[in-house]
């Protein structure tokens, strides 16, 4: 059944991927109407999240952000499909890095890098950085249940010299590379909700107490990695830029969980600047501390 589903959808995805960008975004406008007005995909979740995170805005203002966020979501989904056929030249034109010399200086320090990224703007096209870096680039992701689509995603990323590793593989890959002296950049999109447990670390994200991921920081400290933040900005439709920021060159001098807190604060600032480009469809604030006492 999985293979049949893959066979049915793959030709459609391929046809979408070869559309000129002008037609791609025209199609995205149609998908938006279907997703938002007809299917109402996760509209209640988005509305709930916006009310929690942006209570200072009026209902009408949040509604504008809600619609813009769904338009961006449709664009990003189709841009992800476009990656199947996009050229190196095209993706480099559409995703620019503003301060690569700062990143290169980090490589010269001779330590692997934990790169912290939010689910903001275009986290899909961050893979284009592999065209510039000398280290091996690893993107940490959640395995897709359909093994054929999972392989497709890996194949797409591999053409940009990116290695995909699942959350379960992360520990083994990082520690194995460290023992072999293989230097890598590990992309952690750490702003979504962690799996519930009694040992979760709680922090105020967008003014709301919630558990946060601390894995990137823990891996960095255990394996003596430097930590950077990649701020991704949407310049205009179909065009993005990424700016590197150093969080720490000496992780052992930073109090526990401080790096994770700094990362969440930076994502929050981006959201306040332009909330329509954040991924609001996930239940980010679903856990309450009292339920774990």
What is the helical fraction, as a range of percent?
Answer: 40-55%
- The whole-angstrom Rg is 19 Å
Query: What is the element string, with H for helices and E for strands?
Result: HHHHHEHEEHEHEEEHEEH
Mean pLDDT: 93
Distance between the termini: 43 Å
Q: What is the count of DSSP helices, taking H or I runs of 4+ residues? A: 10
Strand order of the largest sheet: 1-9-8-2-5-3-4
Q: Ranges with pLDDT <50 over ≥5 residues?
A: none
**Major sheet attributes:** 7 strands, mixed
Percentage beta strand: 15-25%
Report on the structure:
By secondary structure, this protein is α/β, with parallel strands linked by helices. It contains 10 helices and 9 strands. The protein has helices spanning 2-17, 21-39, 43-53, 59-82, 88-94, 100-108, 147-158, 170-180, 215-222, 258-273, and strands at residues 95-97, 113-117, 136-141, 162-166, 184-189, 201-205, 208-212, 226-236, 239-248. The strands form 2 sheets. The chain has a 7-stranded mixed β-sheet with strand order 1-9-8-2-5-3-4. β3 (136-141), α7 (147-158) and β4 form a beta-alpha-beta unit. α2 crosses α4. The longest helix has 24 residues, at 59-82. The model has no long low-confidence stretch (mean pLDDT 93).
């Amino acid at each position: 059944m999985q293979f049949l589903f893959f066979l049915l959808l793959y030709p459609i995805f391929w046809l979408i991927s070869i559309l000129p960008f002008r037609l791609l975004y025209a199609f995205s406008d149609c998908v938006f109407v279907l997703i938002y007005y007809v299917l109402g995909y996760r509209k209640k979740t988005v509305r709930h999240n916006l009310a929690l995170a942006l209570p200072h805005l009026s209902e009408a203002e949040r509604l504008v952000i809600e619609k813009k966020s769904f338009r961006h979501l449709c664009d990003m989904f189709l841009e992800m499909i476009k990656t199947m056929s996009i050229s190196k030249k095209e993706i480099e034109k559409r995703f620019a890095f503003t301060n690569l010399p700062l990143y290169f200086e980090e490589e010269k320090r001779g330590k692997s890098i934990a790169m912290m990224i939010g689910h903001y703007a275009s986290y899909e096209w961050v893979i284009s950085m592999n065209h510039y870096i000398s280290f091996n680039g690893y993107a940490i992701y959640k395995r897709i249940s359909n093994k054929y689509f999972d392989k497709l995603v890996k194949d797409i990323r591999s053409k940009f010299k990116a290695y995909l590793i699942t959350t379960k593989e992360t520990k083994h890959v990082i520690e194995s590379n460290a023992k072999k002296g293989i230097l890598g950049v590990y992309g952690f999109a750490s702003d979504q909700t962690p799996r519930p447990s009694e040992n979760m670390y709680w922090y105020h994200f967008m003014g709301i107490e919630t558990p946060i991921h601390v894995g990137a920081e823990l891996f960095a400290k255990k394996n003596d990695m430097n930590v950077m933040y990649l701020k991704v900005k949407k310049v205009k439709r179909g065009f993005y830029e990424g700016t590197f920021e150093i969080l720490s060159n000496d992780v052992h001098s930073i109090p526990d969980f401080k790096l994770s807190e700094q990362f969440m604060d930076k994502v929050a600032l981006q959201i306040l600047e332009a909330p329509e480009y954040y991924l609001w469809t996930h239940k980010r604030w679903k856990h309450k501390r009292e339920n774990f006492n």
